[in-house]
Amino acid sequence: MARTIAPPELWGVGQFRVGAESVGWELSQAEIMRDAQSATAVLADIGLRPGARVLVTSLLSEASHVWPLTLGVLMSGAQLSSADATPFDGYRTAMFLRTLRYDMALGVSDAVIDGLEQLGLDIGAAFADVAVIVARGQAYDRLEDAGLRPSRIILLGPATAIARAPGAPAEVDPELWGLDTVDGEIVVTSLTERRQPFVRQPTGVAGAVDGSRVVLAPPAA
Amino acid sequence: MSDQPSGLDDASANPLDRDRDRFFDPDIETASRDELAALHEEKLLELVPYAYERSAFYRKHWSEAGVHPRDVKSVDDFRERIPFMDKDAIRAFRDGYRDPYGGLLCIPESELTAINSTSGTTGDPTLVPERWAVGGSGPALARDFWELGVRPGDHVAIPMFTFRGPIYNFPHVLGAVPLIFDHSPAELPRICELVRRYRPTSWYTMSGPFLLALAELETATGVDLADVFSSFSSIVFAGEPLGTRAKANAERWGMPLFHHSAAGDVGAAFECREHDGLHVWEDVGYYECIDPDATGPGNATPVADGAVGELVATSLGSDVFPLIRYRSDDLDRFTRQRCACGRTHARLWTLGRKGDEVVVEGRSVLPVDVWAAVEALDETAAGLFQIIRTARHVDVLRLRVGYAGTPGNLGALAELVADSVEAGVGVRPQVELVANAELLKLGPPHKIPRVAKR
Predict the structure, then answer these.
(1) pTM here?
(2) Whole-number pLDDT of residue A221
(3) Which of A9-23, A170-184, B315-329, B370-384 has the weakest average pLDDT?
(4) Is B111 on the interface with A (CB under 8 A)?
């Protein structure tokens, strides 16, 4: 008989970014499940339905943000594909988009678009059949420039902010995170019990807040 | 975050003896060969009609070979009648019939939870459809990492990729906690910092480019890598062969390296603490090792135990997307002899891909043959090179070799590399030199393609 061992209370040690700096981040299994339940609700709000297919582009180091979203996809009864958010792995993203029909592309980043463009692909055409595109950073603007209507996702320090519709501001779950600003930088405070609590944690993201909504500052000229 | 990372107290108080208590699932890991043979017969005789009924690929492929499941009543029948298949056959079916799963999907598409992909090392990646339980992975890697010393309360460093799905969850089956990183040289300073903080006992995976980047980090910063790696009982190395210079560095840093490889896209193969071949799990896959030149079951002579052949794999644990008599293109030495660790499952030693072999002047040359000769020179010590393979039989061995720094006379260096390869391999190559950084751009972060068509 194989051994049966209880999983550890600590889910893992990931990281979040504050600008260019990386901060180690311990998460418990309970936090992951709470974040996943929140993600499930958000994904439903933006149109994820049972039987849908979702392509997630991320880095493994983003697992602390992405695993709750992934669980949200699975708990929604949707199907998941994964590719690295790197230029090199653009061939994998291209293969998925060429081979299967996706209802949602989640986490599209500059690196993903760079990879597709390096393969000579037209971004507008590559994502044309994807109903919901959730993009981050400058990828959001590049997709808009290509004639698409993405929604925005922001990895806001340890929090995740997602817009409920194209053009809408990204927002955090107000039961999980409080937002504020310090000298034009958004800071986050954890509102539920966390193994690693956050109080006005800098995020490296410039902007303003409106309740749980994030209003990004325009990029510096 | 507290100063004392979680788990360290638990680990130090761990009552389990890592040396004496080596089996995660002793019944199956030490099953007798007779028990394994009975398991193979039971599972193969279930699999053949199951796949024939559900897979358009197998119905077509086997019908063209004149085979019907009713003809397969034993493992001998399976070996004598069921035709081989390979990745090209899957791609051809996929493209010819516009079926993204290559005709292999055996359950309704609506029952899938994940559709991931192969690495794509040998071309366009192919889809790997899966059905998961919500919450993550099962005990797939648990047996191997238990043997490698992971115990409840430990931490496991996982610098990896996303294309296999949420690989970071596997330590939970062992009661261990993952430290999650990208497999990117840019992550190494952070990895060193967190390794010193959490003192993990295992690392999955290390690669040649990572070892190269660690040497550069050591030179640039003076980081004490012997201290960084002092807590590890295992560091799993994968991707490609370990060069002699990289191996020397790993030994200098006290890395307890264990080799790991895929096993015919059906399972994984890991060294145990005996360092005497990589174990495959024969309840997960049915493995054969055949004459690499075999064209079909009729002339697919199994190689003698301990000899080199091509690995052929059949999935025993997948009702979603089973591969049946899948020719891996991998040349392995293969044995079913019981290992000194007590495990009874087969072991293999990886030599290279059949598709990477070139024959020059009647002599077979694989990347592994060239490695040491390239590494022998300081300027090319990183061991970054490609064989230019326009055909299996070529008149001249052509190599593209990476160099570090700014050597003054590239022509003279190319001659030195050619001398070294000629001395080591017995064939004088034509050598094209390029900067290491250019070669590293060609691959994923953990390896480069060792063979190029041009």
Answers:
(1) 0.91
(2) 59
(3) B370-384
(4) no
Predicted local confidence at residue A48, as pLDDT: 96
Q: Which residue has 């699975």 as its token pair?
A: A74
CB contact under 8 A, B117 and A81: yes
Q: Which helix (H) or strand (E) holds B9?
A: helix B8-12
CA angle (A152 as vertex; A148, A157 as ends), nearest 5: 155
> Helix or strand or coil: residue B48?
helix
Q: What is the mean pLDDT of residues B225-252?
A: 92
Q: What is residue B20's DSSP assignment?
A: T
Cα of B272 to nearest chain A Cα, Å: 18
**Best CA proximity match to B45, nearest among B22, B67, B78, B68:** B78
Question: Which band of pLDDT confidence, cut at 50, 70 and 90, is reported for residue B15?
Answer: very low
Joined together, the tokens standing for residue A184 give 């034009």
- The H or E element containing residue B441 is none
Q: What is residue B139's predicted lDDT score, i.e. its pLDDT?
A: 56
For residues B127 and B399, what is the distance between their CA atoms, to the nearest angstrom? 32
CB A7 within 8 A of CB A28: no
Element (H, E) at B10: helix B8-12
Strands B234-237 and B451-452: unpaired
Distance CA B295, CA B65 (A): 13
B161 close to B147: Cβ distance less than 8 angstroms: no
- Residue B18 has which token pair? 């890592």
Query: Residue B98's pLDDT band (boundaries 50, 70, 90)?
Result: very high
Judged by a CB distance cut-off of 8 A, whether residue A199 touches chain B is no
